[in-house]
Fold each of these.
Amino acid sequence: MQMRNIAFRDMRLPRLGAMRSGGFSPALLFAGGAEGAWYDPSDLSTLFQDSAGTTPVTASGQPVGLMFDKSGNGNHATQATAAKRPIYTEGSGLAWLAFDGVDDAMVTAAIDFTGTNKMSVLAGVRKLSDAATGVMADLSADATDSDGTFAMYNSATSTVNGAGFFSQGTAIGVANATAGLVPPANAAITGLGDISGDSSIIRINGIQRANGPQDQGSGNYGNHVLNIGSRNQTSRFFNGNIYGIIIAGKMASTDEIAATEAYLAAKSGVTL
């Protein structure tokens, strides 16, 4: 379902000085016109129970069929099937989308990242289990079979007690961390991809855990859908909570990464 024509709201972009003084907003990552998306489940004004956006989410325990993108790019996430919608949940001063690890998932229309070969993917999550591979964010219907993609995930094999991230041009670079996230656990997770630089980095709670140095081939990222909580709404369903996801089609600066990780950690109940 194409939702890009839904206006969210005018975003006032803070200066770097404001970020350093504690007034940080993830909107800063998009100040230069970077493509991407920012999802904030704690902001009820961005959540609707149905995919058409006619019934707002007003209380914990309600399904989410539409989540607005706050980046200004209009990359809203939807779930048309009622039984597959994650559940908006509140507790201990936090708010999140609960994904059941069975069939819950959301997806966007295609996002055009063809103008960049660098990517920053940051998420605040709670991982409940490593029993099965679960995708937090996946660019394309099947990232491993498409050029110009990325994915952030936990795995039943390669990232037990951690998390993973891969970036792919015409070849794939994989960073698997096997420490730093023993389930059940909350974390701010960062994936940084650089196709031309052959770099695929995974960070957990402000600490770099792995860097995949493999040759990623050539080209830029593609014009693909973004899957949240699954691979193509058919497999690798994430079992856990998502407190926020921020994706920018650029290599975020050191200051931006640190500030965004702190922002997502606070959203997730984590102290860095």
Amino acid sequence: MSAIFRYAAYGLAIESNRPLPGLAPPRPQPHSIAIEFAGDMPHVEGEPFFANGFEKCWHRPNGEWVIRYDDARDGSAWALTIDEERIAVGWTREGFLDDAAPVLQGPGLAAALHRRGVPVLHGAVIAIDGGAVLLIGAPGAGKSTTAAAFVRHGFRLMSDDVAPLRMSPAGILAESGYPRLRLFAEPARAAGWSDLPRLFADDILGDKRFVELDEQFCPDALPLAGIYFLRGRETSLTRPRVEPLEPRAATAMLMQNIYCVRFLDAARKGGMLRRAARVVSEVPVRAVTAADDLSTLPDLVDSIATDARGVAR
């Protein structure tokens, strides 16, 4: 009988028949999922629902999703078959297993959550005074750099990159992820880290690095206290500008920042729109414009934290 490895992430109790480095230790969670490294590649027919060359996604008639990654260099492939209770992992090249954990931590588990109707946003979540603050950013706005600055200033990271929300009658909770902060080399150096380990062993998956966190990781789900959308930086600013977003603009912003939106059909996008409208009706949403100067990062952290503490009262 093979060993079972247990973890927790995104409100899921996870059981796997292979170790998944980087995930958080097990703890009580509202839902569960099994990850089975089966080895066999799934057979898929017809045109994929989504394809970009390297990644393809099929929505099978039986409700399963199949996400496949093809390596044009040698013709190898790996795939995730996702249903209500499990993710089955198949591969044609053993080298894929070196990168299985970070792929599962991102698109794999996010797709499983989307299938269950959980709203999943693309952002970093920081714990501030018993509440959760979600950082969302336009490309190049410095989301990873800002999240790293929060950690460097003593705040605890809840989740990086993948931000699922738990919608309950009592309110909206941000789920905790895993104790790693993912960064490209330049933001890492800006935050004071150098020579960080690579996230992916295979160059085809990119050159992100990671910081392993301990006491600066918050493993608990917390009430969502605020959402901060990082706009493009402005060279003329000397202090960050934090402004409220009106509900319609805030809802559109959330829809533009769905994690793995490429996997969603029209019905799931419609469900996400309804949930986004509820979020902005219950949670303050701010637009943040920062100075284009890394030396002002402490001011940016202070401005967001001060605003979040104010709206939480």
